[in-house]
Amino acid sequence: MDFKGFDHPGRPAGGGTRSVKVMIAGGFGTGKTTMVRSVSDIKPLTTEETLTQASADVDHLIGVADKTETTVSLDFGKISLNESLMLYLFGTPGQERFWFLWNGLFKGALGAVVLVDTRRLASSFRAIEEMERQNVPFVIALNVFPDSKNHPVDEIRDALDISPHTPVVACDARDRDSSRDVLVALIQHLKDRSAVALESR
Length: 201
Ligand SMILES: Nc1nc2c(ncn2[C@@H]2O[C@H](COP(=O)(O)OP(=O)(O)OP(=O)(O)O)[C@@H](O)[C@H]2O)c(=O)[nH]1
Ligand SMILES: [Mg+2]
Fold this sequence. Notes:
Blueprint: E1 18-26, H1 32-39, E2 48-50, E3 69-71, E4 75-82, E5 85-91, H2 102-105, E6 111-116, H3 125-133, E7 138-143, H4 153-160, E8 168-171, H5 176-199
Parallel strand pairs: 1-5, 1-6, 6-7, 7-8
Antiparallel strand pairs: 2-3, 4-5
Helix pairs in contact: 1-5
Bound molecules: guanosine-5'-triphosphate and magnesium ion.
């Protein structure tokens, strides 16, 4: 896929490498840190702390019972998708008590991946609402766990109440190629949106 025509609004067109800020968002324990880790070209910066007993009741550990750490501030990584496009990845915290950080984190973001664990769909509702509120285009990445059911995409769309234009892709956040494919889908979505915007001018 060729991203050469993709222009970052803050940069002049033509030549050089474009840098794009991308958020990796989603509910608690959906695999955000895992995705930043698997796909980043550099050793990512992570800010994980041990999960405390205090959060045990509110965090609904169903399906991620062996989870011991949670992101308290952000994950940061970067990936060069090709010679002209560099993505800076910002993983959000999933625990509700850190959501107040989201406003600042999203500044300048061109798009987002919203990770969804289909065993716990509701955990990502708030992240989707936030993308819509902050007007950040996004793709849904269904992070497939061994006991995830194979729901038809239309059912998932309905359950998440997202527009038919929002791409939904399945992935394994632990796998670099799979995570990279999600980022490619996001960039393609951003390109499609800007093409539509240009046409309707
Ligand atoms: N089987 C399987 N396990 C995964 C996958 N992705 C993540 N995990 C595991 O699921 C747990 C949650 O992953 P994290 O990457 O910490 O999730 P997170 O969204 O960053 O979590 P918070 O920062 O606490 O919101 C970890 O124990 C991972 O090893 C996956 O694709 N498949
Ligand atoms: Mg995390």
